[in-house]
Design a protein that fits this description.
The chain has helices at residues 11-28, 34-48, 51-63, 68-73, 85-98, 109-118, 121-144. The protein is mainly α.
Length: 157
């Protein structure tokens, strides 16, 4: 499989990606737990069918110590007992924020209130920003058909 565009060599893509990366770094440096951040990235990427991001974030999560059991159960988090209440709230917000067009009003008040029970305002801001950023990356990669499988943890910095 070959990508439709080379996002790594195209000058305009480089400019766009630098800005998206800056937003991602702001979220990454927040107090939102790193494990939660990876779970959110993985779940949104599963929903969006982004193999490139799934390859990256499952490998990064494993390298950071995430267990294979939890990684394997992200897609079925509702039925899994291995996630905390806070992680479950973040995953619900991720699903609703990713499938925003699937429900009138997008994200429900219940999903928001549940997340707000577990995360402070900065963490909620980071969670919303992360959902937006990973969805942006997913769309870039899916539209341009970026191939998956070759990512090595840390290769982008």
């Amino acid at each position: 499989m070959e990508a439709r565009l080379n996002l790594f060599t195209d000058p305009l893509a480089g400019k766009v990606l630098r800005h998206i990366n800056s937003a991602g770094k702001a979220v990454g440096d927040s107090t939102l737990p790193a494990a939660t951040q990876e779970l959110v990235k993985i779940r949104a990427s599963q929903i969006n069918g982004c193999g490139f991001c799934l390859d990256m974030h499952t490998k990064d999560a494993a390298k950071a110590g995430e267990t294979a059991l939890r990684l394997n159960l992200v897609a079925a988090w509702r039925e899994a007992t291995v996630f905390t209440a806070a992680e479950r709230a973040a995953l619900e917000l991720t699903e609703q924020g990713t499938r925003i067009a699937d429900a009138p009003g997008g994200v429900t008040d219940e999903a928001w209130a549940n997340a707000a029970e577990h995360y402070d305002e900065e963490q909620l801001t980071a969670l919303v920003g992360l959902i937006a950023v990973i969805n942006t990356y997913n769309r870039l990669n899916v539209i341009t058909r970026q191939p998956a499988g070759g990512y090595e943890p840390g290769m982008f910095g």
